[in-house]
Amino acid sequence: MSECACGGTCGCGSHTEETTVYLSREEYIARLEQYLLDLKAEIAAVEAELVELRQTA
Predict the structure, then answer these.
(1) Less CB within 10 Å around the terminal CB: N or C of the chain?
(2) Which residues sit opposite 55 in a β-bridge?
(3) Residue 8 contacts residue 22 (beta carbons within 8 Å)
(4) Are 54 and 33 in contact, with CB atoms under 8 Å apart?
């Protein structure tokens, strides 16, 4: 099974046969794992900012 490099069924509408890049299952899993790490880091940053804002309020 291959997935679109921009995230599978993204609906971005920019795909043509010449420009579509497919990832192997392993590459797609690695991309999703990195995305999950990025999301967790973003959540931590937002939580830290909220803590800081609440302390100075």
Answers:
(1) C
(2) none
(3) no
(4) no
